[in-house]
Design goal:
Blueprint lengths: L1 H14 L7 E6 L14 H10 L4 E3 L5 E3 L2 E8 L2 E6 L13 H10 L17 E8 L2 E6 L6 H4 L17 H5 L10 E7 L3 E6 L12 E6 L3 H9 L5 E3 L6 H6 L3 E16 L9 E2 L14 H10 L2 H8 L4 E3 L22 H10 L6 E8 L6 H14 L2 E8 L1 H9 L5 E7 L4 H8 L19 H10 L5 H18 L3 E13 L3 E3 L12 E3 L2
Parallel strand pairs: 1-10, 1-11, 15-16
Antiparallel strand pairs: 2-3, 4-5, 5-7, 6-7, 8-9, 9-10, 11-18, 12-17, 12-18, 13-15, 14-18, 19-20
């Protein structure tokens, strides 16, 4: 009998199915430029960093603040904020999250070397961090900061014990320091190819449904769709617009779409007397930089057929941009007419500025940073050429583009910004660059306009919302009239997934993350 029972138990053990491991494989367009979570403030870097590490707060898909390593925050007075910390949080190796970790992180943020864009604006106003007790800190600021809640949802927190005084970007890239408090643990990274993560079984939050997550980086849009069709991946981001009708018709797949907080713009080199990628029609250098003249910048703006681009190139997956802010951004300019497509007026402005015969220009931009970015560059070049500005295109991989742009190597380049505020892109992109105050970390063309800076600086220290809105709009209007940046389109975000595998909560901030994906029951 004993032998029979043992045999039966063995048979049951063999027959019982092992618990299936849930793996989510993502076909993503753009790889991170580095794993150091403070090295480069871009969407592609941040979406990975926030799976392994965590900020104090985060903005959810409804653009609402949610607690992460902080439970709450309140303003004690205009120069003091009290933050209650999440004492349940632990780093992946068991090290507890401590108040000193916040001070350590905020001190590190402005110091990461060779960064194309730091997170400095998020900590710019903090002068000291007071540890009240093990779950309470107070942030003391040099001036009132109305964006403090927004700022505290920006840089992720490291451990002063684990990451220490000499944490380098190379140490993160090697995986050595990829130890955070987040819902996923780092497993491996092959640069520009793939990242593998595994679920953090000891995370304080709700259990994530995915045991394992693999990001495969597939910059070619056709290849990304092909990988989904072949079942090689479960989910893809930046769905090529030409593939959307096909995917809509196939029952095997589901589309997940949302209007984004992302707007695409051109940044002209308007501050230098000469500029490297502008010549006369014979290819000879010009004595003065035409982009320094606002009439030329307005001519380029009027040359762009935004509505046609949104309808024909993006098949409705974009809208014409009218200003340097997303369509739902807080305190954006109100009552603006759409930027017109007026080639005749553009040619007249060029003539008025002293360029009746035009000039030659090279426009730079990314290839594989957002949907149809390389085709958009071509469309812009054609539009400029039609008004007499003979334009050629150079599309570059995003890391190369941003490194060269940071070195001021371009005359005109294309990129995007994502924000639920109008004030934030103004301070980050076009405010006169000041590393000490954290102003203008993305101001790669060194644009400087005192008439804009004055109301902008006041807005950044004004707690009264009505007054802050007035000042923000005053600054935004100065930028618009000067056409310091040239708005192009607002993007609509799309993901596609296998209907039998995944449901995705589309992110208005463009994040492609397993935390937004749920398995199909």
């Amino acid at each position: 009998m004993r032998h029979l029972l043992l045999a039966a138990a063995a048979c049951l053990a063999l027959a019982a199915p092992a618990t299936a491991q849930r793996t989510l494989t993502i076909g993503a367009q753009t790889p991170p430029s580095a794993l150091d979570p403070h090295y480069h403030n871009t969407q592609q870097n941040t979406q990975i960093a926030r799976l392994i590490f965590e900020p104090l707060f985060e903005l959810d898909n409804k653009v609402q603040f949610q607690p992460r390593l902080a439970r709450s925050m309140r303003m004690v007075d205009e120069l003091t904020w009290e933050v209650k910390l999440n004492t349940e949080a632990r780093f992946h190796d068991g090290t507890p999250f401590e108040p000193e970790d916040v001070a350590y992180t905020f001190a590190r943020v402005p110091t990461v070397p060779n960064s194309p864009a730091l997170f400095t604006p998020a900590v710019r106003s903090i002068t000291s961090i007071e540890v009240v007790d093990r779950e309470t800190i107070r942030l003391h600021t040099r001036e009132p900061n109305p964006l403090m809640r927004f700022d505290m949802a920006s840089p992720v927190i490291l451990s002063h014990r684990i990451h220490g005084a000499s944490a380098t970007t190379a140490d993160f890239n090697s995986g050595k320091l990829m130890v955070g408090t987040g819902p996923y643990r780092f497993v491996s990274w092959r640069h520009a190819e793939r990242i593998e993560l595994t679920r953090n079984e000891h995370w304080y939050g709700p259990t994530e449904p995915w045991d394992r997550v693999v990001y495969r980086y597939i910059p070619n849009p056709g290849a990304r769709t092909a990988a989904l069709l072949a079942g090689e991946v479960d989910l893809i981001d930046y769905v090529p617009v030409q593939d959307i009708p096909r995917l809509q018709q196939e029952r095997r797949f589901a589309l997940f779409q949302v209007d984004s907080l992302t707007f695409v713009y051109l940044f002209p080199d308007s501050m230098r007397d000469t500029t490297p990628f502008v010549t006369d029609m014979q290819g000879k250098p010009l004595a003065r930089n035409p982009l320094a003249d606002p009439r030329v910048r307005w001519a380029l703006a009027l040359a762009i057929p935004r509505q046609a681009i949104a309808e024909r190139l993006y098949l409705g997956m974009a809208s014409a941009a009218d200003q340097f802010a997303s369509p739902i951004a807080e305190h954006r300019l109100e009552g603006l007419e759409p930027l017109p497509h007026d080639p005749a007026r553009a040619r007249a402005l060029l003539a008025e500025a002293g360029y009746p015969n035009g000039f030659r220009l090279t426009i730079h931009g990314p290839n594989g940073h957002f949907v149809n970015d390389d085709n958009l560059l071509q469309a812009l070049a054609q539009a400029f050429t039609r008004i007499g500005v003979e334009t050629r295109v150079e599309a570059l991989p995003p890391p190369t583009l941003f490194t060269r742009a940071t070195n001021r190597e371009f005359s005109l380049f294309m990129t995007y910004f994502t924000s639920a505020l109008t004030l934030n892109p103004l301070r980050q992109v076009v405010m006169t660059r000041d590393p000490d105050l954290g102003h203008g970390p993305f101001n790669r063309q060194r644009y400087s306009n005192p008439q804009m800076d004055r109301p902008l600086a006041l807005a950044l220290t004004t707690m009264d919302e009505a007054r802050r809105k007035q000042l923000t709009q005053q600054a935004a209007r100065v930028l618009y009239d000067d056409m310091g940046v040239i708005p192009i389109i607002n993007l609509r975000n799309s993901w596609a997934g296998r209907r039998d595998r995944v449901v995705y909560d589309p992110s208005p901030t463009n994040f492609t993350q397993p935390t937004l994906a749920k398995p199909v029951p």
